[in-house]
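Q: Here's a chain of 198 amino acids. Please give me its 3D structure as C-alpha cells.
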Amino acid sequence: MPEFAAATVRMRTPEDAVALPVRTSVELGAWAGEAARRLVGPDDGDPKLLDALAAELREAAADSRGRGPVTALSYVPEPRLGELARIELSALVADDTYPELTVDLLRSYLAAPTADSYRPPEAELRTLPAGPAVRVRHAYVRDVGRDGLGTIMETCAYGIRADETWGLVLLTSWQVPAHTDDLCELTDELAKTVRVTS
C-alpha cells in the first residue's frame, strides 16, 4: 500500500447522495442552492423546499468541512425530507503516540463507549478489498435538554487498515431509527467499494 500522502482513495457515491465540498474552496451558499436544485429536479420549483434544502446542505458542508474528511456525502433519497444520513471517509495517520496502526487500535477507537452512548457499541472484524477492517455500530444521545430527553444519533462505521502507518474511517450517521437497517446495508456496500492506489 502507498503512504497516505501518495495515495489516491476512491469510494462509490450512492445514487441519491451529493458530494459536499469539503476539500474545495467554494462559496457554500451558492453551491448549496445549485445542489438543492439538482436534487429536487426541474419538476419541483417550490421555493420553500429549495430554500430549506439549500440551508440544510450548506450546514452539512460546513459541519463536515470542520472535521476535514477525505470526502463527505449528504444522502438525500427524498429531497422533501432533507438529509437522511451523512457519509464521511476520513484518514487516520500513525503518530508518536500510536506509531503503528492496527485493526485492534481502530476497534478501540471506534468502539469506545462514551458518556453519550445510548447502548454499547457492537464491533466485528471484516475483510475488505482495501484491507482488514472492523465494523462498528453505535448509538448516542445528543442535544439533551433540561427535561433529560435528547436525540438519538446512530452510526455505522468501518475502520480500514490501509497499512501499518495509516487507515481510513468510513462513517455513516443518521437520526431516523426507521432507516437503520437500510443505512447499515448502504454502509456495508460502500465499504466494499473503497479503493486505495498510488
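Q: Can you summarize the key feature?
A: The chain has a mean pLDDT of 91.
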